[in-house]
Specification:
heterotrimer; A mainly alpha; B mainly alpha; C alpha+beta; A: mainly alpha; Formate dehydrogenase/DMSO reductase fold; two-stranded antiparallel ribbon; 2% strand; B: mainly alpha; 2 domains; 6 helices; 2 strands; 46% helix; globular; binds iron/sulfur cluster
Chain lengths: 396, 139, 283
Amino acid sequence: MVNKVLKGNGLYWGWLSLLLMIMGAGAVSYLVQFNYGLGATGMSRDVTWGIYISQFTFLVGVAAGGLMLVLPYYLHDYKAFGRITILGEFMAIAAIVMCLMFIIADLGQPMRATNVILHPSPNSMLFYDMIVLNGYLFLNVLCGTVVLHSEYKGIKYPRWIKPFIYLSIPWAISIHTVTAFLYAGLPGRHFWLTAVLAPRFLASAFAAGPALLLIIALIMQRTAGFNVGRIAKDKLVTIIGYAAIINFFLVGCELFTAYYSNMPGHMHTLDYLFFGLVDHSTGIMHNNLVPFMRAFVVMGVVGIGLLFAARRAKSDAMLATACVLIFVSFWIDKGLGLVLGGFVPSPMEHVTEYVPTVVEIGVAVGIWATGFFVLTLLYKMVVAVKRRSEDLLEIE
Amino acid sequence: MYDKVKVFIGLAIFVVAALSIVGYNMSVGDKDGFRTDGKPGPEKPAGHEKCVKETAYMQTSHMVLLNKWRDEVIREGKRELVETVGGEMVEKSLQNGCLSCHVSKIKFCDRCHEYANVKPYCWDCHLAPVETPASKEAH
Amino acid sequence: MDNTRRKFLKLAGLTAAAGVGATVIGSKAMASGAPAHGAPAGHGAPAAAHGGGHGDVATGVRQAIVIDTGKFNDNPGLAEKCQQACHSYHNVPDFGNPKDEIKWIWTDKFANVFPEHSHYKKDDRISSMDIIAMCNHCENPPCVRACPTQATFKNADGAVMMDFHRCIGCRFCMAACPYGARSFNWRSPRGVDKEGHPFIEKMNPKFPSRMRGVVEKCSLCSWRTKKGLDPLCVEEANKTAADAMIFGDLNDKDSKVAKLLRSKFTIQRKPALGTKPSIFYII
Ligand code: SF4
Ligand code: SF4
Ligand code: SF4
């Protein structure tokens, strides 16, 4: 089964080498950061988390998004997802790998990372995050490989794996809930201090995760002749569309609460994100995230419209465009605005803006490339096994 | 950098090295910081007879004691002075305690650490006493 | 140590991690996560084990400082002297730029130190005043709650402390602190700038520096207060203006701070957050 990753066409090898090159550049960037310290990034005393933690947050969502495939297939026996459920599980693996790498990249003293285990602190949300993320990684590796291996052998997956599959369902919710709790439990950061943060995280995750999956599935349909099937695609449209709408609804709730109550603390960050915020001690206007956040709204809304239109028109090209729009839109929302915005204004009500450095972007892109590398290998295996088992079916 | 694994391997080597010294007369040190048998010879501070624990313990386990002191001082606020085996009172502190007697890091700490090739990260934060020209020469 | 309770809390925590259902138990355990005063946060022991059931009862020592802002206003430059005293003793580096900045004690305008008190139409004196800011040594410190390694913890005197040996540099505590009291070593504090000028101008051999990648902040001079001395900033302030800063035990009814707090109107930074700061201001 594993040897399947060693057989591929030129496109496959070209893609892998490209990823390897980017990973190399990422490794070099990380070395620079490792030798200089985190000052090599754009983070500062006021904005203490940057794109590393925001990518981490977003990717936890992508990992949890796999749930939207696992749940209908295993819990409701929804047969149409038979071909793609495993893709969801493997996407979760790649996403968690990236998450863990982003966390390590963000540590000032990565050599001491084990202190989290040596000195367990049940009062810290990061402690739980470590547990749930590693647990979810384990569950998906276990379930994914066992199920795929059974298929490879041409048998149904063994019964003992079922409890693990069922466990992975609430576990997926837990990873994103705990990640939201990292933020939502901090007094004095008004933008994060909201009970809808966890639901919002989940909604955007259930849109962005399946959207990415659908994009990849459509690419594989072209390059590897792997067709997920019209019914599955249509069902995914429903899932992505409604999750995306719920996310926007929750964003709307935030906007209402802040602006109708007219409480400065609640409005400041939203002002900064959507309109720009003036630092009162300097009189300078800060608005470098405004174009992004407006793009988030526009792309998201257009994406949702296009998504349902694509289903009606049965157009894969439109579908892919819609998914890209939604994915990028929600990446901006959670992978940029949410984390960076929370630090503005600072606790002393100053506005410090953050711009990532080249080194930092290099590390981040390198980690993304690593994730896609893992994903490519895993999906290569899936495609090979699925082809084989379907051949077997035909012979029978 | 101080990779944990490396530190522990280093420490293990050091313990073995240090243990093998036990039983020899430590006062034999030649001018290069090595004794005639080739083992490192850390220079003992003049005017102080005994350390806070017996020499054998200090050779093998001073880092354990330092960690214990750290936790007691920072976490439990137990900052009382400690008594040396010889009855002197010293502060429970690397920088203000140990190094107040052992005035040369080069002639004391480094001799064994270099021999055992360990690079403890103490010195990333803690300051060694300013070395006098004489102590540097001897290095 | 209370072993059964510790075990229960660990178990409760694990359950909470595994499923959403147990979140309630989890958050209860966490809310009490900050070790209560009077109990030392023992090495390796989860801080939460000390928490439960202390509530508002004043037990143990709770060190506090009362700052008389008027005296600082009358003595321009005094706050800078305090900062100098603190930073030079504690080997706090000066990187010369706000991005890398490390500070344990500093000043800012009233509106920035007290954004929640920043009411409409303040008098001119208050609007122009520079106010000292430092770690509040909160009674319910969010930074301690957030720290995944107990590198930040509360000691038996009520001071919120850092163990630089243990800090992994995740900066969760910095996101958690609502007062901007924490700084991170973005680069090596032992380094030199482009002109070869060291970031720590004159190393104080009595105190360690930090290394890059760890967080630091005011330690309420625990190394001094244990010996019965006032914190350095307090000592320095009082050299120029008597009682500009007053240090003492809040829980000791007869201490100078306790008496002062009973007789004078003082304010705290962001009291609505429930952190219960131990730094009080006479305006
Ligand atoms: S002021 Fe900030 S750093 Fe100090 S104890 Fe309170 S939360 Fe922690
Ligand atoms: S940066 Fe250090 S002190 Fe702060 S939360 Fe992380 S480990 Fe704790
Ligand atoms: S109490 Fe000590 S450490 Fe804190 S600001 Fe004052 S002098 Fe600095």
